[in-house]
Amino acid sequence: MQCERIVTVGVRDGLHARPATQFVKLAKQFGSTIEVGCRGVRANAKSSVKLMLLGIKEREEITLHAVGEDAAHAVERLAAFIVTEDAGLEIQRDAAPRMAEPESAPLAPPRPPTAPAGTPASRGTALGPAHPFFPPPLTEMSRAIVGAEIEQHVEAYRAAVVEVGEILQRRRNGLHMHPEDAEIIEALIDVARDVELAQATEQLIRSGLDATASVLRAGTELSDAFAAVEDPYIRARAEDIRTITRRIALRLLGREEATLTGLPPGAIVLADELGILDLAEADLSAVGGIVCRQGTVNSHIAIMARAHGIPLVVGCTIGADRLKEARQVALDGATGDVHIDPEPDLVARIESTLADERDERVRLEAYRLVEPMTRTGRRIEVAANLGSPKEIAAAQAAGAMGVGLLRTEFLFMERRSPPDENEQMQVYRRFAEAFAPHPVIVRTLDVGGDKPVPGVPFPKEENPFLGWRGVRLCLDRPELFKPQIRALLRAATIGNIKVMVPMISDVGEVHRVRQLIEECRAELDREGLAHGRFDLGIMMETPACALLADELAGEVAFFSIGTNDLTQYVMAADRLNPRVAALNRADHPAVLRAIRLICEAAGKAGIPVGICGEAAANLDLIPTFIGFGVTELSMSPGAILRAKKCVTEIG
User: Fold this and answer.
1) Angle, vertex CA 452, rays to CA 449 and CA 456, nearest 5
2) Of the residues 28, 73, 110, 485, which has the maximum number of CB atoms within 10 A of its CB?
3) Residue 267, Cα to own-chain centre: how many angstroms?
């Protein structure tokens, strides 16, 4: 059987390393031969290396082609992944339990033209002892092999790949591994086991080149191919290829890699290029900052540094010999300034800046357990937007007052069939127990033509954002919707579950949802299954909702304003289209007027109203929203402390 489908990529920033890794993992679940075509070039969908080299961008059109018994199902599942904005990116958006760095002043007055500097890659100021890290390079010293040696070298190469994969897997499964770091290492594991890398290496071995030289040569050719790609995210993956092939070569040689062990507290690591494994194996609490002569802001090192709040400068112009001799280093990850053995007056200024930053962090930390009130005595809930159980710890660490938006799509998207009622119930209970007594507001399934789910055939729609999605789909497919309602009713025995329905445009839709809830409650009564009650609210994200807010307020227990969709619908500007990005802003007068209408209706009806779109974390807009009558703000965990502080400063 053959199956082919043209799909528009919805994955944010396209198929770079992590989404490509997840896409390949999904493709490998199927027995069919699967290829991805883009701009006239095809690649093996089960090779993350070749997939990334296609440089597939967001909003680009690709072709999925499969041949085999499960071809149709494979194409359906992969298409569902491709059109999903957050596919493979859940950790990147919400999970990092870190505090945004305060704005820092430059390390010194405007620098002279000769001042050494690099490219800022992770914010923060650092001053500490230098720790040069310059492992000896691995150069290709090839020797010819013949006869039985060839198969011996093939087997040795395969064994080295297995060993490196096992080492990476142990690192990935470490008890204290940060979720975002784990996702990055998982991408490296996929590179190590990549079929294209293996084929290229084994082909060189069979041509008579020894295993070590073969893997280094294959790695160089692949890394050069990545470095030549225009897209910066893809180009940055050249570093990953070099990291992996070096580790495999070292295993073949029976040598251990140099490590960043025994770092003094606050050490500034100086290197030509740092691999993600070098940093993953270090005691990150001892790393004060990093300076690299190579690298980009899109490298995995940069992503990891930002996740841990480690200042980083890449592309530093200081020579390696000078870095190796350094005793003390100052750097500013916001400006790219790097100073080797700085003068006493500069050290004094840096220490003052660091003290201010520490004070700011301490001041923000004081808001972790605060339930903020404005100066006039209005209590505002500041909650978290979550889309996976892996994000619970980050939200708790950030002081979230519950969950203002629990996206349930993660339960449905990356699987062959929808989750059953019991599985859903257990997940909802887990969230409710984790945040009790604070509320957990669960958004019912919000999928449609732009992000389909397996088992639900979707018609081709010219504009899926205006089509069969959200509550419209759920009401038409009660066999999909009722198990979720039943699971939520059963989880509601914890006492803090609330439920909101997306894409409401008509009061009749609310009535139909309530009817289904009552049907499910009656079924659970007959079956003798324990269940509770939950407040029912709705997402206010369509212009119709804003215009009917007075009528809708009498039908539900709360409103939650989804500013992302509300903005794009009010402004008729696709939020994924860069050409109309200037129109797609929540502070536009038309959008603010719609939000005000919603808040006024909620106030008259005496029901709470929250905001769970990206605008909820906008410090400039928070006072306006609260002035309108908003009672809850829900956002990514990393923004919570600053939002709490902002609330307490509102008169």
Assistant:
1) 105
2) 485
3) 28
306 confidence band (pLDDT: 50, 70, 90): confident
- Contact between 278 and 263 under an 8 Å Cβ cutoff? The reply is no
- The distance of Cα 164 from the centroid of its chain, to the nearest Å, equals 26
The answer to whether 300 is a known catalytic residue is: yes
Q: Please write the tens of the pLDDT for every residue from 196-219.
A: 889 999 999 999 999 999 999 998
CATH of domain 148-253: 1.10.274.10
Tell me, what amino acid is at 437? P
Residue type, 612: C
* The pLDDT of residue 449: 52
- With tokens 């071995």, the residue in question is 205
Q: In sequence order, what DSSP letters do the residues of 517-581 get, joined into one string? A: HHHHHHHHHHHT------EEEEEE-SHHHHHTHHHHHTT-SEEEE-HHHHHHHHHT--TT-GGGT
> What confidence tier does 175 reach under pLDDT thresholds 50, 70, 90?
very low
For the chain, which residues make up each domain, given as ranges?
A: 2-94, 119-135+259-365, 148-253, 381-648
Identify which of 11-20, 241-250, 616-625 has the greatest average pLDDT. 616-625
Minimal CA–CA distance to 428: which of 342, 487, 378, 472? 487
Among the ranges given (309-323, 350-364, 519-533), the one the predictor scored with the smallest mean pLDDT: 350-364
DSSP one-letter string for 440-505 = EEEEPP--BTTB--TT------S-GGGSSBTHHHHHH-HHHHHHHHHHHHHHGGGS-EEEEESS--
CA 320 to chain centre: 34
Decide if 131 is catalytic.
no
Q: Cα dihedral sign for 402, 404, 408, 409?
A: negative
Return the ∠ at Cα 299 (arms to 35 and 63), rounded to 5°.
15
Q: Which of 33, 120, 16 is nearest to 68 (CA)?
A: 33
302 CA to centre of own chain: 14
Nearest C-alpha neighbor of 413 from the set 71, 44, 23, 31: 23
Pick from 92-106, 580-594, 634-648: least confident: 92-106
Report pLDDT for 470. Answer: 87
CA distance 1 to 441: 44
Catalytic member of 65, 300, 308, 339: 300
- For Cα atoms 392, 433, 635, give the angle at the middle one, nearest 5 degrees: 40
Classify domain 381-648 at the CATH superfamily level.
Phosphoenolpyruvate-binding domains (3.20.20.60)
The pLDDT of residue 575 is above 80:
no
Q: Considering the candidates 3, 316, 474, 612, report the single residue annotated as catalytic.
A: 612
119-135+259-365, CATH topology level? Glucose Oxidase; domain 1 (3.50.30)
pLDDT band at 56 (very low <50, low <70, confident <90, very high): confident
| CB 336, CB 118: distance < 8 Å | yes
Q: The tokens 């502070």 sit on which residue? A: 587
pLDDT tens for 543-573 read 999 999 999 999 999 999 999 889 989 999 8
* Model confidence at 515: pLDDT above 80: yes
- Going from the C-alpha of 515 to that of each of 90, 224, 444, the distances in angstroms are 33, 60, 15
CA 449 to CA 466: how far, in whole Å?
9
Min mean pLDDT across 191-200, 232-241, 334-343 is at 232-241
